[in-house]
Amino acid sequence: MCRHLAYLGPDIPLGVVLGDPEHSLVRQSWAPRRQRYGTVNADGFGVGWYAAGDPVPARYRRAGPVWGDEGFADLCRVVRSGAVLAAVRDATFAGADGEAAAAPFASGPWLFSHNGAVRGWPDAAAPLASALPVHELLELAARTDSALVWALVLHRLRQGDDPGTALAEAVRELAAAAPGSRLNLLLTDGASIAATAWGDSLWYLPAHPSGRVVVASEPYDDDTGWCEVPDRTLLTATRTRVALIPLKESTL
Protein backbone atom coordinates (compact mmCIF):
# COMPACT_ATOMS: atom_id res chain seq x y z
CA MET A 1 0.00 0.00 0.00
CA CYS A 2 1.13 3.56 -0.73
CA ARG A 3 3.96 4.75 -2.97
CA HIS A 4 6.65 7.23 -2.03
CA LEU A 5 9.79 8.88 -3.42
CA ALA A 6 12.73 10.97 -2.24
CA TYR A 7 15.06 13.01 -4.47
CA LEU A 8 18.35 14.77 -3.74
CA GLY A 9 20.19 16.62 -6.47
CA PRO A 10 20.35 19.83 -8.49
CA ASP A 11 17.37 22.17 -8.18
CA ILE A 12 14.59 21.08 -10.53
CA PRO A 13 10.85 21.73 -10.86
CA LEU A 14 9.05 19.21 -8.65
CA GLY A 15 7.19 17.90 -11.67
CA VAL A 16 10.39 16.56 -13.22
CA VAL A 17 10.35 13.66 -10.74
CA LEU A 18 6.74 13.67 -9.53
CA GLY A 19 4.61 14.18 -12.63
CA ASP A 20 6.54 14.20 -15.89
CA PRO A 21 7.97 10.65 -16.08
CA GLU A 22 5.87 8.02 -17.84
CA HIS A 23 5.37 6.06 -14.62
CA SER A 24 5.60 8.98 -12.21
CA LEU A 25 4.35 9.03 -8.63
CA VAL A 26 1.20 10.77 -9.87
CA ARG A 27 0.50 7.90 -12.29
CA GLN A 28 1.32 5.39 -9.56
CA SER A 29 -1.67 6.75 -7.66
CA TRP A 30 -3.94 4.84 -10.08
CA ALA A 31 -1.60 2.53 -12.02
CA PRO A 32 1.34 1.34 -9.92
CA ARG A 33 3.43 -1.32 -11.60
CA ARG A 34 5.05 -3.03 -8.60
CA GLN A 35 2.64 -2.48 -5.72
CA ARG A 36 2.11 -5.74 -3.85
CA TYR A 37 -0.75 -4.64 -1.57
CA GLY A 38 -3.68 -2.43 -2.52
CA THR A 39 -4.51 -1.16 -5.99
CA VAL A 40 -5.42 2.54 -5.94
CA ASN A 41 -3.59 5.23 -3.96
CA ALA A 42 -6.43 7.73 -3.64
CA ASP A 43 -6.75 8.48 0.10
CA GLY A 44 -4.44 11.45 0.24
CA PHE A 45 -1.06 12.63 -0.97
CA GLY A 46 1.66 15.03 -0.02
CA VAL A 47 4.96 16.57 -1.01
CA GLY A 48 7.64 18.21 1.10
CA TRP A 49 10.54 20.23 -0.25
CA TYR A 50 13.45 22.36 0.91
CA ALA A 51 14.35 25.89 -0.14
CA ALA A 52 17.92 27.18 -0.22
CA GLY A 53 18.99 28.61 3.12
CA ASP A 54 16.05 27.21 5.09
CA PRO A 55 16.51 23.85 6.87
CA VAL A 56 12.78 23.49 7.61
CA PRO A 57 10.84 22.05 4.66
CA ALA A 58 7.53 23.24 3.26
CA ARG A 59 4.67 20.79 2.73
CA TYR A 60 1.55 20.53 0.59
CA ARG A 61 -0.88 17.75 1.60
CA ARG A 62 -4.46 16.89 0.75
CA ALA A 63 -6.93 14.16 1.70
CA GLY A 64 -8.16 13.33 -1.82
CA PRO A 65 -6.55 11.77 -4.91
CA VAL A 66 -3.58 13.61 -6.40
CA TRP A 67 -4.93 13.36 -9.96
CA GLY A 68 -7.83 15.69 -9.16
CA ASP A 69 -5.80 18.48 -7.56
CA GLU A 70 -5.10 21.30 -10.02
CA GLY A 71 -3.18 23.23 -7.38
CA PHE A 72 -0.69 20.37 -7.07
CA ALA A 73 -0.10 20.40 -10.83
CA ASP A 74 0.64 24.15 -10.73
CA LEU A 75 2.91 23.75 -7.72
CA CYS A 76 4.91 21.00 -9.45
CA ARG A 77 5.31 23.19 -12.52
CA VAL A 78 6.78 26.26 -10.81
CA VAL A 79 8.36 25.19 -7.49
CA ARG A 80 12.01 24.16 -7.72
CA SER A 81 14.02 22.26 -5.13
CA GLY A 82 17.08 20.08 -4.73
CA ALA A 83 15.53 17.92 -1.99
CA VAL A 84 12.02 16.42 -2.15
CA LEU A 85 9.97 13.72 -0.43
CA ALA A 86 6.50 12.86 -1.73
CA ALA A 87 3.91 10.13 -1.21
CA VAL A 88 0.48 8.93 -2.34
CA ARG A 89 -1.68 7.04 0.19
CA ASP A 90 -3.44 3.77 -0.49
CA ALA A 91 -7.24 3.71 -0.40
CA THR A 92 -8.21 2.49 3.07
CA PHE A 93 -11.04 2.55 5.61
CA ALA A 94 -12.86 5.79 6.29
CA GLY A 95 -11.37 7.96 9.00
CA ALA A 96 -11.58 11.45 10.42
CA ASP A 97 -7.90 12.36 10.09
CA GLY A 98 -8.04 13.64 6.50
CA GLU A 99 -4.85 15.25 5.24
CA ALA A 100 -3.25 14.88 8.67
CA ALA A 101 -2.85 11.19 7.83
CA ALA A 102 -1.09 11.91 4.53
CA ALA A 103 2.69 11.75 4.32
CA PRO A 104 5.11 13.34 4.52
CA PHE A 105 5.02 13.75 8.28
CA ALA A 106 7.40 16.43 9.51
CA SER A 107 9.29 17.79 12.49
CA GLY A 108 12.10 20.34 12.33
CA PRO A 109 14.30 19.46 9.35
CA TRP A 110 12.81 15.98 8.91
CA LEU A 111 10.34 14.59 6.38
CA PHE A 112 9.06 11.01 6.79
CA SER A 113 6.84 8.50 5.00
CA HIS A 114 5.71 4.92 5.71
CA ASN A 115 4.72 2.51 2.96
CA GLY A 116 3.10 -0.55 4.53
CA ALA A 117 0.97 -1.51 7.51
CA VAL A 118 1.42 -2.51 11.13
CA ARG A 119 -0.26 -5.89 11.44
CA GLY A 120 -2.75 -6.16 14.28
CA TRP A 121 -3.12 -2.39 14.51
CA PRO A 122 -3.70 -0.87 17.01
CA ASP A 123 -3.47 -3.59 19.66
CA ALA A 124 -0.13 -5.04 18.56
CA ALA A 125 1.55 -1.62 18.69
CA ALA A 126 0.10 -0.58 22.05
CA PRO A 127 3.14 -1.67 24.12
CA LEU A 128 5.46 0.44 21.95
CA ALA A 129 3.12 3.42 22.10
CA SER A 130 2.88 3.18 25.88
CA ALA A 131 6.68 3.40 26.16
CA LEU A 132 6.75 6.83 24.51
CA PRO A 133 6.67 9.98 26.64
CA VAL A 134 3.12 11.24 27.06
CA HIS A 135 3.84 14.57 25.35
CA GLU A 136 5.10 12.71 22.27
CA LEU A 137 1.89 10.67 22.12
CA LEU A 138 -0.11 13.89 22.33
CA GLU A 139 1.87 15.20 19.33
CA LEU A 140 0.71 12.36 17.06
CA ALA A 141 -0.42 13.87 13.77
CA ALA A 142 -3.13 11.27 13.17
CA ARG A 143 -4.65 8.11 14.63
CA THR A 144 -2.95 5.84 12.13
CA ASP A 145 -0.19 3.24 12.23
CA SER A 146 2.03 5.46 10.07
CA ALA A 147 1.76 8.34 12.54
CA LEU A 148 2.86 6.07 15.38
CA VAL A 149 5.74 4.68 13.31
CA TRP A 150 6.85 8.28 12.76
CA ALA A 151 6.61 8.98 16.50
CA LEU A 152 8.87 6.00 17.23
CA VAL A 153 11.42 7.13 14.65
CA LEU A 154 11.29 10.75 15.78
CA HIS A 155 11.80 9.73 19.42
CA ARG A 156 15.04 8.02 18.42
CA LEU A 157 16.19 11.00 16.37
CA ARG A 158 15.59 13.28 19.35
CA GLN A 159 17.61 10.90 21.51
CA GLY A 160 20.58 11.31 19.17
CA ASP A 161 20.31 8.30 16.85
CA ASP A 162 21.54 8.85 13.31
CA PRO A 163 18.82 8.48 10.63
CA GLY A 164 19.77 4.94 9.62
CA THR A 165 19.83 3.69 13.20
CA ALA A 166 16.55 5.42 14.01
CA LEU A 167 14.80 3.65 11.13
CA ALA A 168 16.47 0.27 11.64
CA GLU A 169 15.72 0.07 15.36
CA ALA A 170 12.14 1.25 14.93
CA VAL A 171 11.60 -1.42 12.27
CA ARG A 172 13.07 -4.14 14.48
CA GLU A 173 10.86 -3.11 17.41
CA LEU A 174 7.73 -3.01 15.28
CA ALA A 175 8.49 -6.30 13.54
CA ALA A 176 8.97 -8.00 16.91
CA ALA A 177 5.77 -6.51 18.37
CA ALA A 178 3.68 -7.03 15.22
CA PRO A 179 5.12 -9.88 13.11
CA GLY A 180 4.17 -9.72 9.46
CA SER A 181 4.10 -5.92 9.36
CA ARG A 182 5.22 -4.15 6.21
CA LEU A 183 7.65 -1.41 7.15
CA ASN A 184 9.11 0.43 4.20
CA LEU A 185 10.19 3.74 5.74
CA LEU A 186 11.61 6.84 4.06
CA LEU A 187 13.32 9.74 5.85
CA THR A 188 15.23 12.83 4.74
CA ASP A 189 16.64 16.02 6.24
CA GLY A 190 17.32 17.59 2.84
CA ALA A 191 20.96 16.48 2.84
CA SER A 192 20.65 12.70 3.18
CA ILE A 193 18.11 9.90 2.74
CA ALA A 194 17.52 6.83 4.87
CA ALA A 195 15.06 4.11 3.90
CA THR A 196 14.10 0.55 4.74
CA ALA A 197 12.84 -2.25 2.52
CA TRP A 198 10.72 -4.50 4.73
CA GLY A 199 7.81 -6.23 3.08
CA ASP A 200 7.32 -4.14 -0.06
CA SER A 201 9.26 -2.88 -3.07
CA LEU A 202 12.03 -0.27 -2.91
CA TRP A 203 14.29 0.94 -5.72
CA TYR A 204 16.98 3.56 -6.20
CA LEU A 205 18.82 5.37 -8.96
CA PRO A 206 22.50 5.29 -7.94
CA ALA A 207 24.34 8.49 -7.15
CA HIS A 208 25.10 10.38 -10.37
CA PRO A 209 28.15 12.57 -11.12
CA SER A 210 25.76 15.54 -11.18
CA GLY A 211 25.05 14.91 -7.50
CA ARG A 212 21.64 13.27 -7.87
CA VAL A 213 20.11 10.25 -6.16
CA VAL A 214 16.51 8.97 -6.14
CA VAL A 215 14.90 6.42 -3.80
CA ALA A 216 11.37 5.26 -4.61
CA SER A 217 8.82 2.51 -4.09
CA GLU A 218 9.16 1.72 -7.76
CA PRO A 219 10.93 3.13 -10.84
CA TYR A 220 9.20 6.13 -12.41
CA ASP A 221 10.64 5.35 -15.85
CA ASP A 222 12.40 2.55 -17.74
CA ASP A 223 15.94 3.80 -17.14
CA THR A 224 18.17 0.71 -16.91
CA GLY A 225 20.05 2.29 -14.03
CA TRP A 226 17.33 1.57 -11.45
CA CYS A 227 18.42 -0.96 -8.79
CA GLU A 228 16.08 -2.96 -6.56
CA VAL A 229 16.80 -2.95 -2.83
CA PRO A 230 16.66 -6.46 -1.32
CA ASP A 231 14.00 -7.07 1.31
CA ARG A 232 15.16 -6.62 4.93
CA THR A 233 17.64 -3.89 3.99
CA LEU A 234 18.53 -0.43 5.25
CA LEU A 235 19.50 2.10 2.57
CA THR A 236 21.38 5.30 3.33
CA ALA A 237 22.24 7.85 0.67
CA THR A 238 23.65 11.28 -0.02
CA ARG A 239 23.96 13.06 -3.34
CA THR A 240 27.20 11.17 -4.03
CA ARG A 241 26.82 7.69 -2.55
CA VAL A 242 24.38 4.91 -1.68
CA ALA A 243 24.97 2.19 0.95
CA LEU A 244 22.93 -0.95 1.62
CA ILE A 245 23.02 -2.76 4.96
CA PRO A 246 21.14 -6.03 5.67
CA LEU A 247 18.61 -5.87 8.52
CA LYS A 248 17.93 -8.71 10.92
CA GLU A 249 14.81 -9.14 13.01
CA SER A 250 15.11 -8.59 16.73
CA THR A 251 15.66 -11.70 18.79
CA LEU A 252 14.00 -10.13 21.84
UniProtKB/TrEMBL annotation:
Pathway: Amino-acid biosynthesis; ergothioneine biosynthesis
Record-linked PROSITE patterns: GATASE_TYPE_2
Its job: Catalyzes the hydrolysis of the gamma-glutamyl amide bond of hercynyl-gamma-L-glutamyl-L-cysteine sulfoxide to produce hercynylcysteine sulfoxide, a step in the biosynthesis pathway of ergothioneine.
GO MF annotation terms: hydrolase activity, acting on carbon-nitrogen (but not peptide) bonds, in linear amides
UniProt-listed GO biological process terms: ergothioneine biosynthetic process
Protein's gene: egtC
Entry-linked InterPro entries: EgtC, EgtC-like, EgtC_Actinobacteria, Gamma-glu_amide_hydrolase, GATase_2_dom, Ntn_hydrolases_N
Glutamine amidotransferase type-2 domain segment(s): 2-252
Superkingdom classification of source: Bacteria
PANTHER family recorded: GAMMA-GLUTAMYL-HERCYNYLCYSTEINE SULFOXIDE HYDROLASE, GLUTAMINE AMIDOTRANSFERASE DUG3-RELATED
Database matches in CDD domains: YafJ
Keywords: Glutamine amidotransferase, Hydrolase
Name the record gives this protein: Gamma-glutamyl-hercynylcysteine sulfoxide hydrolase
EC numbers, comma separated: 3.5.1.118
UniProt cross-references to NCBIfam families, sorted A to Z: ergothioneine biosynthesis protein EgtC
Catalytic activity: gamma-L-glutamyl-hercynylcysteine S-oxide + H2O = S-(hercyn-2-yl)-L-cysteine S-oxide + L-glutamate
